[in-house]
Amino acid sequence: MTPVVTYLRTSSNQNVGVDKDSDTRQRLKIDDYVKSNGYSIHKEFYDSGVKGTLDILNRPRFMEMITYCDKKNIKTIVFENSTRLSRDLICQETGFQYLSGLGFTLISVESPDSFVDESPTSVLVRQILGCISQFDKSTIVEKLKSSRDRKKIINRDKGIIDRNGKGKSGGRLRISEKNPDVIDFVVKSRKKKLTYRRISELVESEMDVKISYVGVKNLLDEIEPLRKYERNRKRRKNGN
Predict the structure, then answer these.
(1) Contact call for residues 74 and 107 (beta carbons, < 8 A)
(2) Structurally, how many domains does the chain consist of?
(3) Is residue 161 situated within a structural domain?
C-alpha cells in the first residue's frame, strides 16, 4: 500500500473543538478515499485556526508535515479539497508548483485529478506564473529558510549536530565528524595533562590528521554537548 500523510485545515478557531465537525467531516472523507484507493495513512497534520489565504510556508503544521515526509520518504499528501490547500488561486498554484518541485503528489479527494488538470484556466494560471518569476524571487529567502529548518531537524535525528547539540543545516564537517577516533585520542591525551599544542602535534604525527591547538580546545569544548545529545537520543529511543 502506498504510504500517505493527510492534511486538514480549519480557518476559524470558532470551528475548532470537540463540539465542531469541520475536522471530523474532512477526516471521514479522506479516510473513505484512502481505504478505497489502496493508500495507507502514516500520520495526520491539522492546521486549526489557519486561514486559507495564508501561504503554505507560513503554516506550522503544514511545514511540520513536509519535514515528516522528508524523514519518512513519503511523497503523497491527501486532503479534502483544494480549498484546504488554499482559498487563494495564486497561493494555491504557487504552492502546487513548489510542492511538485519537491516531488510531492497532491490528492484532493473531492476531485482527485484537480492537480494534474490541464483545463484552459489551469494552463492560463500556470503560464502567467511563468511570466512573473519576480514573485518567486521575493519568496526565495523564505523557502530557503524553510528548507534549512527541515534539514536541521532531519540532521539532528541523524546525529549531525553543532556544538550546542542542535541540528546542522550545512557547513563543513568538523574533525570529530570526519575522524571520530580523534575524539578518544584527544580526551586521553588531555587527561595526561598535555597541552593543546602538544596534543595537536601528536594527532598529526600518530593519526595523520591536522588539527590546530585551537581546534583541540574546540573539540574538547564540544564533547560534553555531543555526549549529552547522544544520551538524550538513546533515552528517547528507549522510551519509545
Answers:
(1) no
(2) 2
(3) no
